[in-house]
Specification:
This is tRNA (guanine-N(1)-)-methyltransferase. The chain is of the alpha/beta class. It has 2 domains: 151 residues, SPOUT methyltransferase, trefoil knot domain (Alpha/beta knot, 3-Layer(aba) Sandwich); 58 residues, Trp Operon Repressor, Chain A (Orthogonal Bundle). It has 9 helices and 9 strands. Strands 2-1-6-5-7 form a 5-stranded parallel β-sheet. The chain has a two-stranded antiparallel sheet with strand order 3-4. The protein has a two-stranded antiparallel ribbon with strand order 8-9. The longest helix is centred in the C-terminal third of the chain and has 19 residues. The structure holds adenine. Adenine binds next to strand 5 and helix 6.
């Protein structure tokens, strides 16, 4: 997979991809992440990327010209499966959408700032608008980092133990059951006996029950779906 990120703050986005699973995914060739600084595509002498909004009102708007220049350039080089805009008024990100996006070859992600981008960018270039939740961040970069992390770990081969993505919370519509490791007792707090029983079918059944109970308690909405 190739991901092209359009941002005015590339430095804000580099560290989440420079360690652990995300770095390994790049080293192993599962994903290439390219940053494009929108400011480099501004043609005015101050390298402005924003302007006052028509009709008045507080807050600047990201201009269409530099963004159109980057997108046109990238589209002339390859075909994109999706051109995504990170925005609080987009479709709220869920595991199902992450699964779908993890199967794509080329994704472009535009990170918004200020009051957002000129609506014509959204109408004419963007194919999908994604929100990571009902709150407003100071820019789309952190949201894009969340999206990319959630997608990249699902690319086959990225996680060492393939089953560990399959047993994530949400993958089967339920939250994940509790997990424990050594020691079997700490401060008098014990690991449930069943996990030490060595009986795989009992353990499996216990995990299913726990996953169901936890979902019923914490996210009953998932059971309604
Ligand atoms: N940009 C600002 N807030 C955001 C959010 N909640 N999701 C996606 N992009 C955003």
């Amino acid at each position: 997979m190739r991901i092209d990120i359009l941002t005015i703050l590339p430095e804000l986005m580099k560290s989440p991809f420079s360690a652990s699973i995300m770095q390994r995914a790049q080293d192993k060739g599962h994903v290439e992440i390219h940053f494009h600084n929108i400011r480099d595509y501004s043609t005015n002498k101050h390298k402005n990327v924003d302007d006052y909004q028509y009709g008045g009102g507080a807050g600047m708007v990201m201009s269409i010209e530099p963004i159109a220049r980057v997108i046109d350039q990238l589209k002339s080089e390859r075909t994109y499966d999706e051109i995504i805009y990170m925005t609080p008024d987009g479709e709220v990100l869920e595991q199902g959408l992450c699964n779908q996006l993890s199967l794509k070859n080329n994704l472009m992600i535009l990170c918004g700032h200020y009051k957002g981008v000129d609506e014509r960018v959204r109408e004419h270039y963007i194919t999908k608008e994604i929100s990571i939740g009902s709150f407003v961040l100071s820019g789309g970069e952190v949201a894009a980092s969340v999206l990319i992390d959630a997608i990249v770990r699902l690319i086959p081969g990225v996680l060492n133990d393939e089953t560990s993505a399959l047993t994530d919370s949400f993958q089967d519509g339920l939250l994940a059951p509790p997990v424990y490791t050594r020691p079997p007792e700490f401060n008098g707090w014990k690991v449930p006996d069943i996990l030490l029983s060595g009986d795989p079918s009992k353990i499996e059944k216990w995990r299913e029950e726990q996953a169901f109970e936890r979902t019923k308690q914490r996210r009953p909405d998932l059971l309604e779906e």
